[in-house]
Design a protein that fits this description.
The protein folds into 2 domains: about 300 residues, no CATH class; about 120 residues, no CATH class. The chain is about 40% helix and about 10% strand. Strands 4-3-2-1-5-7-6 form a 7-stranded mixed sheet, covered by helices on one side. A hairpin with a 4-residue loop joins strand 3 and strand 4. Helix 6 crosses helix 7. The chain is globular, with a radius of gyration of 22 Å.
Length: about 475
């Protein structure tokens, strides 16, 4: 359904403003899983050993081995409590304990696992940063990662908000606060691409009649934990990275998925409440085919740390990183619509001048379903404890911004080189290619045929009614 009035950039206050000084932004260092969220599910799978460990509502913490992936049989092999591990994307989850797992396999298999794990660790020493729990404040980079976590009182505040007829402003508990410089940097909302975002949203709602129908048609049904695991395993086998990445399936995150590390083990976290049958493959291309492969390639480069980046004068990895990943998530979708990232961009801008309840009411012009609106509002307000104040976390605006930058310069970008050089901006590729380490880079299958890849980029342009004329006006 289209809005009751035409939305234009002029009808909305077009100023970039900082968050009100009273806003208290804070996020936690994850320690333990929140016991109050009894309905959440935490499952962690290590593909290399086919071990599924999990914690559900009626399970205090047991280990399972999938004895038959095709038939779905699960055999319990141990009832030892799981040891907690750190998780970038949410409260501590019950991930695989390699010492206990090794007891469940033969000596020969143990040696194979040990050799493979050792090789992976030695080759990917710089794969992904890990977080520590000893600091009273968290740094800027930690804030960016941890801000995707659900507040510890998420369920209670949601219930209270819904019972108040959507008038109450949630008071979220995130734990330890970030450094002031970290929260201030991510509290500035941009309106640069606001009109483009509005156009994309309106075109989508016109096509699908309403947001709820759009989500069902383009996303399909929600997947089970087993289906998620099977698709993830198959994708990693296709890309030749089986055994390298653990899969953490949980509800304790706000985002759809993320890549991180758990004790030097690359780990992909997937939100089971948002994993839909037509979206998951795109999520895997986003997290593994883009973020993970670029991180592995980056570990070989002379700019694989902050000193190296400073030495070579690198531009920030974003918006290139998230823009590229967003494009890859849509690459093979029959209708590669940018509606969700456009709606995130729009919601964050409005959150900078609205309270939570005001924002929730305002989004009704686009999204009728209260649960879907709650999701967008929480993402825009994440990190903010008192949501009665104006304020936002601008992290999710980078998706649409990055997509528009990539599409604007698509003919000039060497996408294989951009992938092979690691965490670099498309602006740095030509300048740095002479010093880049390009021996045996990790290139995803979908990037190997440039002609097909470019055709799919053109389809994204057409579906979202983007033209080169418009992009040249928006992006230098």
């Amino acid at each position: 359904m289209e809005p009751d009035f035409p939305l234009t950039a002029r009808s909305i206050r077009l100023t970039t403003r900082p968050v009100n000084a009273k806003v208290n932004l804070s996020v936690p260092i994850p320690k333990t899983r929140n016991p109050s969220i009894s309905s959440s599910r935490n499952v962690s799978v290590n593909v290399s050993q086919k071990v599924l460990t999990g914690k559900t509502k009626n399970d205090s913490g047991r280990k399972y081995v999938l004895s038959s992936l095709t038939e779905g049989k699960v055999s319990q092999v141990s009832t030892l409590p799981l040891s907690p591990k750190k998780n970038l994307s949410g409260p501590t989850s019950n991930t695989r304990d390699s010492s206990n797992c090794s007891k469940m396999i033969s000596a020969n298999e143990r040696q194979k696992v040990f050799t493979k794990r050792t090789k992976i660790d030695s080759e990917k020493k710089h794969v992904l940063p890990s977080l520590t729990q000893e600091k009273e404040h968290i740094t800027k980079n930690e804030y960016i990662n941890l801000v995707g976590m659900k507040p510890s009182n998420f369920k209670r505040e949601k219930d209270r908000f819904f019972k108040s007829n959507f008038m109450y402003n949630p008071q979220f508990d995130f734990g330890k606060p970030p450094l002031p410089s970290a929260s201030v940097q991510h509290s500035q909302a941009s309106n640069r691409f606001l009109q483009v975002a509005i156009n994309i949203i309106q075109n989508t709602l016109k096509k699908y009649k309403n947001y709820e129908n759009y989500e069902q048609v383009t996303g399909g049904n929600l997947l089970t934990t087993k289906q998620i695991y099977q698709q993830a395993r198959k994708y990693m086998e296709t890309e030749g990275c089986q055994g390298e990445i653990a899969v953490n399936i949980t509800e304790d995150v706000v985002s759809q998925a993320s890549m991180g590390t758990v004790k030097r083990q690359p780990t992909m976290t997937i939100n089971v409440s948002m994993a839909r049958e037509q979206w998951l493959q795109g999520t895997l291309r986003h997290e593994i085919g883009t973020h993970y492969f670029r991180t592995v390639n980056n570990s070989k480069q002379p700019w694989n740390n902050s000193k190296g980046r400073e030495k070579y004068g690198l531009e920030p990895a974003n918006p290139t990183e998230e823009g590229l990943a967003t494009i890859h998530s849509l690459l093979f979708h029959p209708d590669p619509d940018l509606c969700r990232v456009a709606l995130l961009y729009y919601t964050i801008y409005q959150a900078s001048s609205m309270s939570f309840s005001e924002l929730f009411e305002h989004l009704k012009i686009f999204v009728k379903d209260p649960d879907a609106r709650w999701y967008y509002c929480v993402r825009a307000k994440r990190g903010q404890t008192d949501t009665s104040q104006p304020g936002c976390c601008n992290k999710d605006q980078v998706y649409l911004e990055g997509v528009l930058h990539i599409l604007r310069h698509r003919h000039a970008i060497d996408f294989k080189l951009l992938m092979a050089m690691g965490k670099v901006s498309y602006l740095d590729v030509n300048r740095l290619k002479k010093v880049a380490m390009l021996s045996k880079p990790r290139i995803p299958n979908f990037l190997k045929d440039r002609n097909q890849y470019m055709m799919r980029l053109e389809k994204i342009m057409q579906v979202n009614k983007l033209t080169d004329t418009v992009l040249r006006k928006l992006v230098d």
